[in-house]
Amino acid sequence: MNYLIQIKNKKIEIKDGKISSITLRNDKVATTAIPQVASQPHNDAEQNDKGIINASNLLISAGFIDCHAHSDYFIFLNPGADSKVYQGVTTDIGGNCGYSAAPVWGPCFEKRNSDYQTYENLPIPWHSLTEYAQAMDQMKISMNYGHLVGHNTLRESETGVVNRVLTATEIQNMCSKLEEAFQEGATGLSTGLVYPPACYSNEKELLELAKVCKKYDRIFAFHMRNENDFVVEATEETLNVGRKSGCKIQISHLKTSGKRNWHKMPKICDLIEKALTDGIDVAADRYPYTASQTGLLQVLPEWAFDGGEEAIIKRLKDKTARADIATELNKKYEKDYYNNVQIMEVASEKNKQYEGLRVAEAAKKRDQDSFEFVCDLLIEEKTKVSAIYFTMSEENLEMILQKEYVMIGSDSGCRSCVGRLSKGALHPRAFGTFPRVISEYVKKKKIITLDQALYKMSTQPAQRFGLKNRGKIEEGYWADLVLFDLDKIEDTSTFKEPLHYPTGIEYVFVNGELVIKGGKHTGKRPGHFLKY
Ligand SMILES: [Zn+2]
To answer: What is the whole-number distance in angstroms between the Cα of residue 42 and the centre of ligand 1?
Structure first.
């Protein structure tokens, strides 16, 4: 269907998925991207059968782009991408933090298949990026999807989870697979240097991969090796990869964790800004919350991950190994550490009672020391426990959001308020990231302007991740659009009650089709798998 959107002083025509014309309402042709239009709160938006949307009370933006996402597998459980499109997200960039759905082969393919069949009843028939894209195209999805290749996935596919330096041949094999994926349209590469097995990689390995990124002009996204006590060193390592290889660097979820590291943020920004002055192509992304979310496993030191799941469990059961871990963690963590870690999701029925509790609280319920509780829970749940870490500073978040080189990424997969993806104690960023930037940091705290926020959520990530003809409202561009009510836009998802979609997002177009209409999902699935 074709559409005509009438906002306060402009008409936007949509034909065959694209913006076919933009005219001023006195019928002069607008020459540049549309600036944001002031709202007229007295007029309700209407849409009629002929595809005319009268929305003079709403603002329009290019669709939001979630440049740091993890919908790789979730999208197969929720092709409607509920939590994303309800926020106005029209494109997701998956495969972040080193973990991607494709390409996957060897031991990693076997492990994923057994895991996902056990936990989600989800078969994974693909190996290559092309096969993965075909699976998604066959199913049809509600948002567009671009895909990074995960370094951790490449390494695990090549060698399994091993704690050693890779041979030249092994590195060469990873590079060939990466090159193939780039030729098949992958958006870039990501690494998760705190997660196994990429945490065992050295600079040489990173540089070889970075060279492939440079050759194909793709971005290399870093979940850095450290985000707390050694965050400065980790930033230097990341920037050096850019310096030595010349490839585009994205620092994922820029932060410093742990109170004693909060003061390091200005130093990190200085390093990034110095690198920019030196001509290194670096940028970053961040979500508008001060708590992170990852596996409870991340509490452990990295040497404890060696060998993968079975080896970790064996180690946690072994008295001496457990004591060694305890000694190391006692030095590493501040006293109140376990008060700031919340258990989100476990697999077994008997441990459901701990979901939503802080580790210290949960341990008390079992009459246990926090560390011992963590070890036992990881053993009982075969290491699959997710957790929220309340470890960041609001002041730093505000500083980060003001930086020109920072765009918005939720660090979250698509979720839903119903069905399988509504289960577990979820992080509100899955439901609220994009509206929250506007309601909290534009309207309430006035940290950034509305134009800056919309740029960080659409144009900037589109350019950074090479999404052609997206991220702006211009003739010939894909009609990925969000119409929202500036007065009503608000995230309503909280840590206590995450299952709430935001308010104020009235219409969302993906490739010219209405996915959200009058604030409700239409069930349409017009999304494309985006190939670079
Ligand atoms: Zn990450």
So the answer is: 43
